Amino acid sequence: MMDAKLERKPLSAGAVVAGAVVLLLLAGAAGGQDQPELQPGVFTEIIDVRVINLEVVVTDQDGVRVVGLQPEDFVLTVDGQEVAIEYFTEVLGGASVAPDAPEGTVPALLPGEPVSTSYLLFIDEYFAINRDRDRLLDRMIEQLSLLGPQDRMAVVAFNGSSIEMLSSWTGSQEALRRVLESAKERPAFGLQRRAELRSFTAGRELRDRTGLRFSGERAAGLNTLLDIEEEAEVARITGQVKRAVMAAAATLRGFANPPGRKVMLLLSGGWPYNPAQWVLDDPARNIYTTSLPSGDDIYAPLIETANRLSYTIYAADMPAMNQTLTDVESLQVSQLDALGADPSRRFLREQETEMTLQQLAKMTGGRAFLNSASNGFFERVVEDTRSYYWLGFTPNWQGSDEAHDVRVTTRRPGFKVRARRNYADLSRATEVTMMVESSLLFGNTPGSESLPAALGPQKRAGIGKVLVPFKVAIPLHELTFLPQGDRQVASLELRVAVIDELGNTAEEIPVIPLTVRGDEQLDAEGYTIYENVLKIRKRPHDVVFALYEQTTGKILTSRLKFVPEGWKEKADKPKLKKKDRWPSRRGGGG
Question: Hey, how many other C-beta atoms are within 10 angstroms of the C-beta on 572?
Fold first, then answer.
């Protein structure tokens, strides 16, 4: 047996060393309010993307599609430097067209061969109202006949605490009709989002009337700083939006490699691009702060994931403006109060949500369908994805976690080009962390090899918290040892992630570098033990252990369930109708 020793290296942020015991401080849900730092991660196996594919739409000055272009008609630049177009295919009416130039096709299509499209439908239930969501789903059901014989669709819903796959890939229109009909029966939680905003607005108006809020130049809208209440509200909404964005990114990675062109159909209940301006709803106040993320920062994970995986985002605005303003008259007083719907002040916030969809579409080469245009959402998406140019190139991958600017133009004047704008050169370590984070949401266990692990007896650690010791048995026969001086060394990274029953996870998963060393003369059998302690809130958690072997890229994992001693599930309560069900304030789910 190999006499291996485990060398502990300094831990990353989020972990604390205490003597020989390591405490991974993973925050659970705090009482009473959403925690902005708790958010879903990004999902699935490591994606080894070598070729970047660009779906390019070219129109003339009148907006008419331009066909018949050749590779030499295009200019492709990365970070301002022109690069060669290695692959080229024109897709016209859903079928490939043979190029005149010698470049290979993407991905190895024969002339006249049908090009399939994979539509990934993401339904936002966290910000949506049942009425708005159901209206759009009804339109999609009517338009399912537009699916081509080679096309397919998968359906995912996000309720604020978890992502649920309603359907895997299928081309059956009848099966999809049933899935979308059942999706209409699910609870949506947009009324709660609006009630939260209404509560903040009412409090602010009360402080204004009583003179407790501010005076002078601040009352005149000249102040560029947030007060305490405003900053707390902006942080709450920012956390909610980041949760939805990360869930959408996780969904993309969960369906990373379908055949054909990849399209995300994003049904949004209303995500503000700038949460601060959304909260203030005051065009006279421009907020400048570095303590809160910008819209570019908030939506970067979704844009980068889509571009990394060659997904085009087509976004639809569920709360169509004209429908909302019409229907508001028919709402009951209690419903109107919950909505906080003052039509004279809704346009600024409408612009914020529209900006989000436009930016997501622009940066990934898709389109945003706003207001009444969302009624024909799927029909217009199908039409838009039937004809385009497929360009491909191989970047110089560095694994630097940097984003690279990508631009496609034509050498012919007067033409307008629509395509994605960047791609992210993600490191292997970042990919592993994304996979572990997202596995928590989908309930799967990442990796193909098992990692023996066990939880020990809990100990109290203050009010509402417990210490949970654990052991991970690292199988030496699964490791690759390389010579380092006079000994053999295996370099590892251990990640430990938790999720509670409300769907809350830690903002950052600590990466623990480990080195296993031993005498090269001894055979590699048996295990070496790593011991650690989790400090978590006293409530049920799932715990995922992921051991990444840096030399080969192998991942060993396990998933355990922790239930606190003496924990009793709450008694069943009478079920509420779907329009009356409200999620937990802390988790956002039902």
Answer: 6
Q: CA-to-CA distance for 11 and 109, rounded, in angstroms? A: 48
3-class secondary structure, 449: strand
**Could you tell me if 54 and 390 are in contact, meaning their C-beta atoms sit under 8 angstroms apart?**
yes
CB 377 within 8 A of CB 369: yes
Residue type, 457: P
Please give the single-letter amino acid code of residue 340.
G
Please write the tens of the pLDDT for every residue from 286-332.
666 656 788 888 999 899 889 888 899 999 988 754 343 333 333 34
**What is the predicted pLDDT for the residue at 350?**
84
DSSP class of residue 331 equals: S
- What is the three-class DSSP state of 436? helix
* C-alpha closest to that of 392 among 114, 96, 48, 83: 83
**Count of CB atoms situated within 10 Å of the CB of 312:** 26
At 207, the pLDDT band (50, 70, 90 cuts) reads low
Give yes or no for residue 35 having a pLDDT over 70: no
Tokens of 235: 């942080």
Sign of CA dihedral 100, 101, 106, 109: positive
Residues 241, 271: contact at Cβ < 8 Å?
yes
Contact 224, 286 (CB under 8 A): yes
392 touches 53 (CB < 8 A):
yes
- Express each pLDDT in 514-555 by its tens digit: 988 865 444 445 888 899 899 888 889 888 888 888 888 788
Q: Which CA distances in Å does 490 have to 248, 481, 524?
A: 36, 5, 11
Q: What's the pLDDT at 42?
A: 31
Cβ pair 433, 49 in contact under 8 A? no
Give the start-to-end residue ranges of the domains of the chain.
5-44+446-562
Q: Is 211 left (phi over 0), alpha (psi -120 to 50) or beta?
A: left
Query: What SS3 state is found at 118?
Result: strand
Q: Provide the pLDDT confidence category of residue 53 given band limits of 50, 70 and 90.
A: confident
In the prediction, which pLDDT does 79 show? 93
| Residue of 425, 33, 56 lying closest to 233 (CA atoms) | 33
How many alpha carbons fall within 13 Å on the CB side of residue 208? 10
Q: Is 485 left (phi over 0), alpha (psi -120 to 50) or beta?
A: left
Residue 19 backbone zone (phi > 0: left; psi -120 to 50: alpha; other: beta): left
The three-state secondary structure class of 566 is: coil
User: CB count, 10 Å around CB of 171?
Assistant: 15
Tokens of 293: 């993320």
Cα dihedral 99/100/103/105 (nearest 10)? 20
- In this structure, the number of other CB atoms found within 10 A of the CB of residue 291 comes to 8
CB burial readout 433-468, b (16+ within 10 A) else e: bbbbbbbbbbebebbeeebebebeebeebeeebbbb
**Is the pTM value of this prediction over 0.85?**
no
Query: With the C-alpha atoms ordered 565, 566, 567, 569, is the resulting torsion angle positive or negative?
Result: positive
CATH of domain 5-44+446-562: 2.60.40.10
